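in:
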């Protein structure tokens, strides 16, 4: 029996009985097939006990901030405003860099699930989730942590259990916890590296311990385990800086794609089409419709997408914000319809979910209406997410 479970069992007797909370466990970069491939016993057991989708299809770009915020709001990036890990807002004359600007609420649109919950009297607690420390609409969750990747997973688990142990009136009804190990190893070494496989096994064990301890506190709680996207091996690094004259441009290098904000985008587009056959160069209004990536001025004038899973880079003259890390062995962010490796997982277990049920693929935007159903909240109008795509998971 793990130390987390023993500790939870001892303290659970001190907690007043009330409606059980919803726990969301987020595994960054956990690909749709990792659990089966690595025989991840805890996640496979949760699938047998509960319900799961065949795969969870991320929004484009299939990167972390756009998709964790799509999960939180039920909106595609073109509608929730976080259109990339890096992008430019011409109206504000500012660039967004995820490591530098993520705690500023003005970057975020929509109504995230933690804010909707708080507005309806349900306290929320988040241990790292994009946007939760940004004061969106002037409000943070009742309990939250500013991101610090140095905080070990064991500390995160203990804090989640501490929140779940709080007495009624203080205890959050929604708890969200984030773990990044698998994504980090996948980027650095590739999805098939021994170190990535070891990270999958370790996170599977940690997830099992957290679920068992949480259930010891609230046996009837609903638990959702999900990921934002998958991972694929990259074919190499392609620097396009010499392929066109990028004077008058600002670049946002997502790594799996680049957005360009240019004084003369048509000239730049023509030069890239002529000189860079490895990529597709779309005007914003002509990005393929299935990507849902046109309807926001923060999307670049030009969206440059490699035809194979390359890391691409453009550094315009005088642009000091646009370099990428070329030595990465794994990447995500590509078209999730074209590359199945971009897809993630969604598992639900608890009294609200079917047992031993697997349904068709769903989308990251569909998680928001699912969480609304679990929490008894009425979702806002005009969502991109659709409860019907995940309704078969429910009893």
């Amino acid at each position: 029996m793990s130390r987390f479970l023993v500790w939870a069992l001892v303290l659970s007797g001190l907690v007043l009985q009330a409606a059980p909370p919803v726990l969301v466990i987020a595994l960054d970069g956990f690909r749709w097939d990792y659990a089966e491939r690595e025989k991840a016993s805890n996640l496979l057991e949760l699938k047998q006990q509960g319900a799961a989708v065949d795969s969870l299809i991320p929004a484009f770009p299939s990167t972390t901030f756009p998709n964790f915020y799509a999960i939180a709001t039920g909106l595609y990036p073109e509608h929730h405003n976080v259109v990339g890990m890096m992008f430019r807002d011409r109206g504000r004359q500012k660039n967004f860099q995820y490591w530098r600007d993520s705690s500023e609420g003005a970057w975020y649109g929509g109504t995230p699930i933690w804010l909707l919950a708080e507005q309806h009297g349900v306290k929320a607690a988040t241990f790292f989730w994009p946007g939760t420390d940004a004061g969106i609409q002037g409000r943070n969750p009742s309990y939250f942590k500013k991101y610090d990747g140095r905080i070990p997973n064991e500390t995160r688990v203990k804090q989640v259990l501490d929140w779940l142990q709080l007495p009624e009136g203080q205890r959050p009804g929604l708890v969200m916890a984030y773990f990044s190990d698998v994504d980090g190893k996948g980027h650095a070494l590739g999805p098939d590296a021994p170190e990535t496989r070891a990270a999958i096994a370790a996170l599977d064990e940690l997830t099992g311990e957290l679920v068992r301890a949480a259930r010891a506190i609230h046996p009837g709680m609903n638990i959702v385990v999900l990921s934002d996207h998958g991972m694929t091996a990259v074919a190499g690094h392609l620097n396009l800086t010499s392929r066109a004259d990028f004077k008058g441009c600002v670049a946002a290098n997502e790594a799996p794609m680049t957005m360009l904000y240019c004084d003369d985008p048509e000239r730049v587009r023509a030069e890239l089409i002529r000189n860079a056959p490895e990529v597709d160069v779309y005007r914003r209004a002509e990005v393929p419709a299935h990507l849902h990536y046109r309807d926001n001025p923060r999307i670049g004038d030009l969206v440059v997408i490699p035809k194979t899973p390359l890391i691409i880079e453009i550094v315009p003259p005088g642009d000091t914000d646009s370099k990428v890390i070329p030595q990465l062995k794994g990447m995500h962010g590509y078209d999730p319809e074209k590359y199945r490796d971009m897809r993630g997982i969604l598992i639900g277990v608890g009294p609200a979910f079917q047992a031993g049920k697997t349904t068709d693929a769903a989308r990251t935007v569909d998680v928001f209406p699912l969480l609304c159903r679990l929490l008894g909240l009425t979702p806002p109008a005009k969502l991109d997410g659709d409860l019907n795509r995940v309704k078969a998971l429910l009893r």
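note: The two ends are 31 Å apart (CA to CA).
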